[in-house]
Amino acid sequence: DVQLSDRVQSIKPSPTLAVTNRAAELRAAGKDIIGLGAGEPDFDTPQHIKDAAIEAINNGQTKYTAVDGTPGLKKAIINKFNRDNGLAYEANQILVSSGGKQSFFNLALALLNQGDEVIIPAPYWVSYPDMVIVAEGTPVIIETSADSRFKITAEQLEAAITPKTKLVVLNSPSNPSGMAYSLEELQALGEVLKRHPHVMIASDDMYEHILWTEEKFCNILNATPELYDRTFVLNGVSKAYSMTGWRIGYAAGPAKVIGAMKKIQSQSTSNPCSVSQAAAEAALNGSQQCIADMLVSFKERHDFVVDKLNALPGVNCQPGDGTFYAFADFSEAIASFEGAETDVEFAEILLEQAGVALVPGSAFGTPGCMRLSFATSKEILADALSRLEKALS
Ligand code: PLP
């Protein structure tokens, strides 16, 4: 019998992918399943982006590129940071990777030693803790609740920092909560971080463009520019341009660490797909109207879903600021539901009996909640919510 590494045995498969797979299995077995577990927009990739990829193929851009990304794409990323975020980077501060997931993975491997602590506010994107564990770091989770709109306070951050803290992860707007930090809230966190110069910061801005607050998008560097030399900004084209399958993400930050991340990438995957890089360049340089169009749909569905969720007995869903997720507190509903003790059991029953796939909050470090992805049509959402209503009454 093969003895697997301690490393692989210390992590679990992505729970969101697991829910999606389970839904697909049941569907293949002939069951009528509505999958609201997936973390990807339902729209097609815009045509001008696809055209750029086809052109790249026909032009022979089908070979290895520079490990850290083509000069053209890196220039587009530098321009994007300038245009959208007021941030200035040089080419040696940018690393393009095969999705935002690889960007964070590279960062964890380049930065962490055994026992280094990484502060992760819950609810968190499912992959952060496991990627930290693969890199032999120690996740330190800060818990939040609906009362603080699932955001951490400066006091909580201060209390979590120790001499072993290496990195703090911020993700705003957040997957799964949909909440975004205001400039003021980020400034308060920034004040704490200024007092702890040994702590680095990862700002995961993946949902930057899926935001409908009055205040425009801001990240920790907009709030506290003094943190520039120890902040990594992670972003990508997956969510904004409906390009999840193309696998392009990017990181910006201090050249020394970006160089170390590049070294890791050079010995693992090398360059991200050449054709996808051409497509991403077109996405970043082209018209941004496609983002605005998708945002209108997401906001409409958000309003619809949040209303319907709040009408369910024992369910409380705060309106979000962005993303395509609703994160609702189901704890009362689960407590009064026969046959389920936990959110995980409840999700299983919903899937088997109501044919609706939601991701339990436990997966994100916040038990009692459920994440519903509204990256699907209004009709399907209406059907799913009436199934939930029936299941709960
Ligand atoms: N960061 C967050 C918060 C996400 O939700 C995701 C995707 O689900 C990613 C990063 C990674 O995106 P990808 O690897 O698909 O580019």
Describe this structure in words.
The mean pLDDT is 96. This protein has a seven-stranded mixed sheet with strand order 2-8-7-6-5-3-4, with helices on both faces. It has a three-stranded antiparallel sheet with strand order 9-12-11. By secondary structure, it is an alpha/beta fold. The chain has helices at 6-9, 15-28, 47-58, 71-85, 100-111, 127-134, 154-160, 183-194, 220-223, 255-266, 274-285, 289-310, 331-335, 343-354, 378-392, and strands spanning 34-35, 94-97, 117-121, 138-142, 165-171, 200-204, 231-236, 249-252, 325-329, 356-357, 359-360, 369-373. The radius of gyration is 21 Å and the shape is globular. It folds into two domains: 6-44 and 289-392, Alpha-Beta Complex (Aspartate Aminotransferase, domain 1); 63-285, Type I PLP-dependent aspartate aminotransferase-like (Major domain) (Aspartate Aminotransferase, domain 2), CATH 3.40.640. Helix 7 runs parallel beside helix 8 (183-194). A hairpin with an 8-residue loop joins strand 11 and strand 12 (369-373). Residues 39, 99-101, 125, 171, 175, 204, 206, 236, 238, 244, 249 line the site of pyridoxal-5'-phosphate.
Rg, Cα atoms, Å: 21 Å
Strand element count: 12
The strands making up the biggest β-sheet line up spatially as 2-8-7-6-5-3-4
User: Residue-averaged pLDDT, rounded?
Assistant: 96
Shape summary:
globular
Per CATH, which architecture of the largest domain? Answer: 3-Layer(aba) Sandwich
GO molecular function: pyridoxal phosphate binding; transaminase activity
Keywords: Aminotransferase, Pyridoxal phosphate, Transferase
Organism: Oceanospirillum sediminis
Family: Belongs to the class-I pyridoxal-phosphate-dependent aminotransferase family.
